[in-house]
Amino acid sequence: MPTASTGERKPSQESVESLVRRRRSANWKDRLFRLLKPPDPFLPNPRELQIEAPLGRWNLYIGGAGSVVPGYVNLDLFPLRGVNVVGTAEQLPFPPNLFHRVECDAVLEHVEDPIAVMREIERVLAPGGFAHLVVPFCHPFHEYPRDFRRFTPDGLRQLKGNLEVVAEGWRTGPTATLLVFLLEYVKTWLPWRPLRIVAHGVLGWLLFPLRYLDAVLRHSPRAGQIGNHCYLWLRKRTG
What we know:
The chain is of the alpha/beta class. It has helices spanning 13-24, 28-36, 114-124, 153-157, 174-188, 193-207, 214-217, and strands spanning 59-62, 73-76, 85-86, 99-105, 125-136, 164-172, 229-235. It is globular, with a radius of gyration of 18 Å.
């Protein structure tokens, strides 16, 4: 779950807690919903994780509320399940040069000041440590709890500061973009939430096999024209 600084329009802890609770609720309706939920309409890129960036003694996961993240200190805005430290990504409550690896997955679009977040990541990274960033490019609007921006690969690289780029690419490709927007487009026509849930389930199951097209399309030089999420691996220099 993303972390965001508090501004004029403050995120609601109650709304975020409610969302996390539904994802793990034992209520029969919630359990049935999770059982019938279709597979994700995207195919992750296996090359994204094929770099030498092992976990160290101390590792930081930014925005993992609702999940237990083994091997990481989990930081988020609210004291929800799985969160070890409550704080904002713009002001990380840690000393410099502490973490061997920092995960920032689908968070930068939700913070008010991504430049400040990146400077904080650079500060807390130990020399030789790695930062893994994932951001959306072509993806529907999603407040979680707020949604401020989208990134191109060029725009993401601009945030690296003094960190060096180790690897970059697309996590999810153009077919993922097509499918997520088609699902949202169909739901736009439906005024009632129960209908939207049914439509998402039926269409999700019918369309998800198309996601495997990205196994081919991710190698196309034009895949980035409508790529879904891009990633960046950064390393803090030792000298």
